Amino acid sequence: LPSSAEKIWFNGKLIPFADAKVHVLSHAIHYGSSVFEGVRAYDTPDKGTCIFRLDDHTRRLFDSAKIYRMTIPYTHEQLNQAQKDVVVENGFKSAYLRPAAFYGEIGLGLAVPFNTETDVMVAAMEWGAYLGEEALEKGVDAGVSSWNRLAANTMPTGAKAGGNYLSSQLISMEARRHGYGEGIALDIHGYVSEGAGENLFVIRDGVVTTTPITAAILPGLTRDTIIKLLKDMGYTVQEQNIPRESLYLADEVLMCGTAAEVTPVRSVDGIPVGSGTRGPITKQVQDAFFGLFNGTTEDKHNWLTPVK
Ligand code: PMP
């Protein structure tokens, strides 16, 4: 379980953990009207503690808010600084960060008046491997969910919004109830979409495929990182619809996300993926990914931002 911090950044100030409270009538509690990010900071040998893809996460937070016409009363720069500050002020060397913008106690009317400002918070916590340390090496057992991801033009999966995570909760709770480490959702057309909180890659005969953004996914920053790392290593990555059976016939499947990092999938619906262990390309990508933080992969895309 995450271990929390002493201070939380809330509406422009770092305040004690116990004081970072909202009212029970907060709009976001009743209607899911929040947008958020999950971000990681890593302890690097050369640049100290660095936030991974800070600008891209902050940009996505503003993008999610834009989709919902939310007004975040801070600038991109201020929220970058807030994320650095919570890490520094809490004395974390590495951390999981949770920025969120949400409607507080603004009344229970559904249609939020134009220009209503959100509340904004950024918390930091220590949080290890989301799907378990062992899964990073051995892989997770995943199951295809009976719940589909959201249909296009119902709720935008391109926004990282609180309400979307009811779908993710159904998928991950069902998976755990069936004894799987994580669930994989199909989109409403039956193509592979994503895990409850992770994007997916499928590898067969050295060809790497990931789902297109039209398959009801959140366009993950780890997904984008892996595409770029694989290209740097000389692989081609195709973005195209993945039928369910491709999960069974793959040599390798991997899940990725800020929390899950890069995790191999060793079986789907009880069918072993390839040899049922972490595959060679997955290992190569993992090494390249974690190498960004231990200094063995050059940060040529400028993805690391020191917290001070
Ligand atoms: N899909 C969903 C539904 C997620 O919640 C996440 C985690 N934010 C991802 C994919 C992966 O996105 P990222 O790599 O940006 O963390």
UniProtKB/TrEMBL annotation:
Entry's transmembrane regions: none
Required co-factors: pyridoxal 5'-phosphate
InterPro entries: Aminotrans_IV (IPR001544), Aminotrans_IV_CS (IPR018300), Aminotransferase-like (IPR036038), B_amino_transI (IPR005785), BCAT-like_C (IPR043132), BCAT-like_N (IPR043131), BCAT_family (IPR033939), Class-IV_PLP-Dep_Aminotrnsfr (IPR050571)
A Pfam match: Aminotran_4
UniProt keywords, alphabetically: Amino-acid biosynthesis, Aminotransferase, Branched-chain amino acid biosynthesis, Pyridoxal phosphate, Transferase
Record pathway: Amino-acid biosynthesis; L-leucine biosynthesis; L-leucine from 3-methyl-2-oxobutanoate: step 4/4; Amino-acid biosynthesis; L-isoleucine biosynthesis; L-isoleucine from 2-oxobutanoate: step 4/4; Amino-acid biosynthesis; L-valine biosynthesis; L-valine from pyruvate: step 4/4
Single Gene Ontology MF annotation: branched-chain-amino-acid transaminase activity
EC number assigned by the record: 2.6.1.42
Catalytic reactions of this protein: L-valine + 2-oxoglutarate = 3-methyl-2-oxobutanoate + L-glutamate; L-isoleucine + 2-oxoglutarate = (S)-3-methyl-2-oxopentanoate + L-glutamate; L-leucine + 2-oxoglutarate = 4-methyl-2-oxopentanoate + L-glutamate
Keyword Amino-acid biosynthesis included in the entry's annotation: yes
PANTHER family membership: AMINO-ACID AMINOTRANSFERASE, AMINODEOXYCHORISMATE LYASE
Function of the molecule: Acts on leucine, isoleucine and valine.
Family recorded in the similarity comment: Belongs to the class-IV pyridoxal-phosphate-dependent aminotransferase family.
Name used for this protein in its record: Branched-chain-amino-acid aminotransferase
Gene: ilvE
